[in-house]
Amino acid sequence: MSDDDAPFLPRTATPVTPRPTPSWAKKKPPKSKAAKRAKITARKYLAPRDPQEHARKIAENVMDAWYQNFGGSDIDVPLGAVAALALLRNRPGLADWILNLQPHELPELFKEIYLGCWIKRPDLINRAIRLHDWAWNPNPDTQQLRAVHAVTNRAINTGLLDLTGHDDPYMRAEADVLSPLLTGLRHKSDKKWRGEYHTPACVSDLMAGMVVDKDFAQPNMAIREPAVGSGGMLRSVAQRLRDLGLNPQDYTWYGNDVDSLAAACAAVNAIIWDLGPNCAIGCADSLAPEDDYAKTLTEARDAFKERDQAMDTVTLITATRSAMRLLEKAAA
Length: 332
Ligand SMILES: C[S@@+](CC[C@H](N)C(=O)[O-])C[C@H]1O[C@@H](n2cnc3c(N)ncnc32)[C@H](O)[C@@H]1O
Fold this sequence. Notes:
By secondary structure, the chain is mainly α. It has helices spanning about 25, 35, 50-70, 75-85, 95-100, 105-120, 120-125, 130, 140-155, 160-165, 170, 180-185, 190-195, 200-210, 230-245, 260-270, 290-330; strands spanning about 220-225, 250-255, 280. The chain has one domain (about 50-305). S-adenosylmethionine binds near residues 259 and 285. S-adenosylmethionine binds next to helix 15.
């Protein structure tokens, strides 16, 4: 029988080695919206033991988050978000609560933090205007909010609250968390022309240790810094006073910087480090003939006056509303 006459028989397939699963088929299916909304909890972050190193790590992570998410060139925004978070006192569940906020809810959180501090220190919060002005924008940019969200999550997940959220001001003042962020976010040439190179904490701590002792630090003494940056020198002196068993609140502090963003960071730091009621932060040229200290004190007095007037108005409105409610009840 020739091959042509042979009955048709299906040919057995030649054995083949199975193909490897393509990488796209290994990917998990995308999460449903409900699964995405599942509660996020803070990551366990193994923070560096050295607080300065920890502050640098936070700054690096925040900068990565900001630029990876196309945050843009407005560096006041990531700085303001981190500064606001650094003003919080840490409590159980706080980190998880913040991590579960949506991008559009964050400006409200930051406004409340700054407003809470403004009631106590209107002068310092007014000085820090560049750090929170953006949060009051009624039409925020959605991309910017996404970047703020990424910055917030990254700062929390790298242990910002563990560094700045202590009840004890000594612990909160172990590092200047805003200094590496401010100098890191600045463009190289901007930094060069401003001369914005902050003294490393180990150097300013050493200087404070050499200069400040119990004979030197007489109560009510004024500690002044004419080119304060984010306040690193003030921090070292405050910590040295605490090491000597003295209270920084018994001294008068004055820091001035010609750059409004640096002065804003110093103002927030003055609150975090608890430098006390006699602390003024100015924004003026220390080399100009005008008296920048007198100008700062006038601005501070005006800020307190404005705060008192606003509080009086709020009290009046609240009292009027309760009186109206009582009248309505009586009439019913
Ligand atoms: C080299 S940094 C030092 C900051 C801080 N004293 C420290 O040791 O970390 C210099 C700072 O001085 C500020 N500055 C420069 N010229 C100034 C001036 N004429 N008046 C006030 N501040 C000035 C800059 O804006 C910058 O923040």
